[in-house]
Design a protein that fits this description.
This protein has 248 residues and is α+β, with helices and mostly antiparallel strands. 47% of the residues lie in helices and 12% in strands. It is globular.
Length: 248
């Protein structure tokens, strides 16, 4: 069994899984870990859709296009959730302040869901499972995904997490050096161009030489292309369909 240090510093995304099924004990442990995740003000502004049904996973795969969704043991969809507190407010006859229509409200829901997902991820790794976070669960066709998962107003998808027993051992991806990530006391104010260009070379070399499928992708241009694609997602419209009238 890996140590906590190894789990955190040697983590890789697993996209291929064996056919071994997860048992109830493994899932119960992950779910309990999720339940104990830190949340803003203990509001628990998140919910998780645990998809194990093969037909449901196939439907999601057809929309999202990531094969690991249909081959994993469980596909967890982490959602920001203000529906529950609205139901609770109505139950005691108290008006619901439209906090969820503010940018801070959106951020609180996203942060709570993201913290829960990271908790689930580490819990799964600690018992020998592998996983892969799938952001396309949020962007590929969010209205269709919401329909498949029967999400009520006040709930929206933040990210998906595929979990299962690993059938691969990919190379560890190079991450940014600490000089770009950790800023002692204040944001660094020197020229970081050299560090960024050096990291770009490191990623390019990794992509050309890694085990398995190789690519010619660098880091900088690849990320800028991803941002260009992100301009087409229209998440604001999706949020509005889910009942979030964002106040700008």
């Amino acid at each position: 069994m890996k140590t906590v240090k190894e789990l955190l510093t040697e983590r890789t995304s697993i996209r291929r899984y064996t056919r071994e099924k997860l048992d109830g004990g493994e899932l119960d442990f992950i779910y309990e870990a999720i339940r104990n995740s830190p949340t803003s003000y203990n509001g628990q502004q998140f919910s998780v859709i645990a998809v194990t049904d093969p037909e449901e996973k196939e439907l999601l795969y057809e929309v999202i296009g990531q094969k690991q969704i249909k081959t994993c043991g469980v596909f967890l969809v982490f959602c920001a959730d203000y529906y529950k507190i609205k139901v609770a407010a109505e139950a005691i006859g108290q008006p619901y302040p439209e906090f969820s229509d503010t940018m801070d409200g959106i951020m609180v829901g996203i942060i709570d869901a993201a913290l829960a997902m990271q908790t689930a991820y580490i819990a799964a790794l600690s018992i020998g499972l592998g996983g892969c976070c799938i952001g396309y669960a949020r962007t590929a066709n969010p209205n269709r995904v919401a329909d498949i998962l029967h999400l009520p107003e006040g709930v929206f998808v933040v990210c998906g997490l595929a979990l299962g027993f690993p059938a691969e051992s990919p190379d560890l991806k190079p991450k940014q050096p600490l000089s770009l990530l950790i800023h002692p006391n204040h944001y660094r104010n020197d020229d970081m161009e050299a560090d960024l260009l050096e990291y770009d070379k490191t990623v390019s070399e990794y992509n050309r030489t890694r085990s398995g499928t190789t690519t010619q992708n660098d880091w900088i241009s690849h990320m800028l292309g991803y941002y260009e694609e992100g301009l087409t997602y229209h998440i604001e419209g999706y949020l509005e369909n889910q009942g979030f009238k964002l106040r700008l």
